[in-house]
Amino acid sequence: MKKALIFGVSGQDGAFLARFLLEKNYRVIGASRGRPADVFDNLQRLQIRERLEMVSVSMEEADQVEAVIKAHAPDEVYNLSGQSSVARSFEIPGETYESVGTATLNLLEAARKLTLPVKIFNAGSGDCFGDTGGRPATENSPLHPVSPYGSAKVAALRHTDTYRQAHQMFACTGILFNHESWLRPERFVTQKIVATACSIARGRCHEMRLGNTAVIRDWGWAPEYVEAMWLMLQQPEPDDYIIATGTSISLEDFVDAAFSRLDLDWKKYVHTDPRFVRPADIGVMYADPSKAYRKLGWKARIAGRDVARQMVDARLSGKGI
Q: Is the terminal CB of the chain with fewer CB neighbours within 10 Å at N or C?
């Protein structure tokens, strides 16, 4: 039985990955900061909380990271932890960097010191590229982040590449473009849209305020993305891969898909509010995931407007509440 250690197990990706690995008969150790019990809500909703071994660790503390890896000697480590909101990264840039850049460095250094035959996955982000000028980003595209979150993810990506080359470690980064699900909290704009649209349909509220709805993103379905993470660690050699759908739509299109699913005209309810416009934002994000398809055999099946519809259906069924 393989052992996997997941940092950030209580988040959207961590919960779906834990379920995926359990289905493959892994022994799964979930690492979290030891916050109150409600932080494990995602694990409870997927009905897997009792099947996991949980450990309390702060990735910003190098000795704690080293201790947990030494104690469990996992075959695979998935680094999904860290402050994950782009908007919030402008409010807490230092904390964002510590939880992403420093945390990744601590993980890599712990694995190097312990000299264990562990394979490491680092969760990267399409925000590393910034605005690619209408061209799809590839693994070789220049990195031009425009947010503290993007900058932190660039640092984590660089740390991973450095340790892979300098110490011959099996360490790789999945450069994940936007991926959503019913486990997203409402501080993320996609879940805010879905939750508010459903409330409007039920007569509980009458409007929604958003920032720039002209931004274009590659939105995928989170349960599919965790398979790509796992596949990256099953390859004979470590490498970095863009994980995305290869299709992009505007936020306005996402709004329209969510409201249309509820037979509502979004233009009657949605208003622009400058309070929700970020200090710097990426206008257009396109991705080329062809390398993942060619080498991993992975391809997204749910994208764009279908992601919005799936999230609405999940909320109406009770999953997203």
A: N
